[in-house]
Amino acid sequence: MSLSPSLFSVGLTFQCPQCNFTVIKNGSWFQVVSHYKCEGCGREIRITYPDKIAIFQKHAYLATPPRGPLRRSPRPSSERGPAARSAAG
Ligand SMILES: [Zn+2]
Fold first, then answer.
1. How far is the CA of 38 from the centre of ligand 1 (A)?
2. 39 C-alpha to center of ligand 1: Å?
3. CA dist 87 to 80, 81, 82, 83, 84, Å?
4. Distance from Cα 17 to the centre of ligand 1, integer Å
5. Which one, of 71, 62, 67, 66, lies nearest residue 8 by Cα?
6. I need a labelling partner for 26 at 20 to 30 A (CA). Which of 38, 45, 54, 73 fits?
7. How many Cβ atoms from other residues are within 10 Å of residue 8's Cβ?
8. What's the CA dihedral at 58, 59, 63, 69 to 10 degrees?
9. Model confidence, pTM
10. What is the domain partition of the chain in residue ranges?
Protein backbone atom coordinates (compact mmCIF):
# COMPACT_ATOMS: atom_id res chain seq x y z
CA MET A 1 0.00 0.00 0.00
CA SER A 2 1.36 3.35 -0.97
CA LEU A 3 0.20 6.90 -1.31
CA SER A 4 -1.00 7.67 -4.78
CA PRO A 5 0.98 10.49 -6.41
CA SER A 6 -2.15 11.40 -8.34
CA LEU A 7 -3.40 13.09 -5.20
CA PHE A 8 -0.24 15.05 -4.47
CA SER A 9 -1.58 18.16 -6.17
CA VAL A 10 -5.12 17.71 -4.92
CA GLY A 11 -6.49 19.41 -1.85
CA LEU A 12 -7.31 16.82 0.79
CA THR A 13 -9.28 17.49 3.92
CA PHE A 14 -8.37 16.21 7.35
CA GLN A 15 -10.29 16.73 10.52
CA CYS A 16 -8.54 17.29 13.80
CA PRO A 17 -9.33 14.36 16.06
CA GLN A 18 -9.32 16.74 19.01
CA CYS A 19 -11.59 19.55 17.86
CA ASN A 20 -12.75 18.53 14.38
CA PHE A 21 -11.11 21.57 12.88
CA THR A 22 -10.81 20.87 9.18
CA VAL A 23 -7.49 21.42 7.50
CA ILE A 24 -7.10 21.30 3.75
CA LYS A 25 -3.68 20.48 2.35
CA ASN A 26 -2.31 19.01 -0.80
CA GLY A 27 -1.62 15.29 -0.93
CA SER A 28 2.08 16.04 -1.14
CA TRP A 29 1.83 17.75 2.24
CA PHE A 30 0.19 14.70 3.80
CA GLN A 31 2.82 12.49 2.25
CA VAL A 32 5.67 14.07 4.16
CA VAL A 33 3.94 15.37 7.27
CA SER A 34 4.20 13.45 10.51
CA HIS A 35 2.61 16.00 12.78
CA TYR A 36 1.20 19.46 12.58
CA LYS A 37 -0.19 22.13 14.83
CA CYS A 38 -3.94 22.38 14.66
CA GLU A 39 -5.19 25.90 14.03
CA GLY A 40 -8.40 25.08 15.82
CA CYS A 41 -7.19 23.87 19.18
CA GLY A 42 -3.48 24.57 18.92
CA ARG A 43 -2.60 21.00 19.74
CA GLU A 44 0.15 19.03 18.12
CA ILE A 45 -1.63 16.50 15.95
CA ARG A 46 0.15 13.39 14.82
CA ILE A 47 -0.57 11.91 11.43
CA THR A 48 0.57 8.35 11.18
CA TYR A 49 1.09 6.40 8.01
CA PRO A 50 -2.18 4.48 8.41
CA ASP A 51 -3.85 7.85 8.82
CA LYS A 52 -2.37 8.97 5.53
CA ILE A 53 -3.55 5.82 3.82
CA ALA A 54 -7.05 6.46 5.11
CA ILE A 55 -6.94 10.07 3.99
CA PHE A 56 -5.77 9.13 0.52
CA GLN A 57 -8.32 6.38 0.19
CA LYS A 58 -11.03 8.73 1.33
CA HIS A 59 -10.11 11.13 -1.44
CA ALA A 60 -9.24 8.56 -4.05
CA TYR A 61 -12.17 9.69 -6.14
CA LEU A 62 -10.50 13.06 -6.55
CA ALA A 63 -7.52 11.54 -8.24
CA THR A 64 -7.28 12.13 -11.92
CA PRO A 65 -6.84 8.79 -13.62
CA PRO A 66 -4.35 8.74 -16.47
CA ARG A 67 -6.80 6.73 -18.48
CA GLY A 68 -10.32 5.56 -17.95
CA PRO A 69 -13.55 4.48 -19.57
CA LEU A 70 -15.23 7.68 -18.55
CA ARG A 71 -15.72 9.85 -21.54
CA ARG A 72 -14.94 13.45 -21.01
CA SER A 73 -16.07 16.31 -23.11
CA PRO A 74 -13.24 17.36 -25.35
CA ARG A 75 -11.65 20.61 -24.46
CA PRO A 76 -12.19 23.41 -26.90
CA SER A 77 -8.65 23.66 -28.06
CA SER A 78 -8.10 27.05 -29.48
CA GLU A 79 -5.47 26.62 -32.09
CA ARG A 80 -3.38 29.66 -32.25
CA GLY A 81 -0.27 29.70 -34.27
CA PRO A 82 2.49 32.21 -33.84
CA ALA A 83 1.04 35.66 -34.11
CA ALA A 84 2.23 36.68 -37.50
CA ARG A 85 1.66 40.28 -38.03
CA SER A 86 1.56 41.46 -41.56
CA ALA A 87 3.70 44.48 -41.77
CA ALA A 88 2.05 45.40 -44.95
CA GLY A 89 0.04 48.44 -44.44
ZN1 LIG B 1 -7.75 20.73 16.76
1. 5
2. 6
3. 19, 17, 15, 12, 9
4. 7
5. 62
6. 73
7. 16
8. 60
9. 0.69
10. 5-62
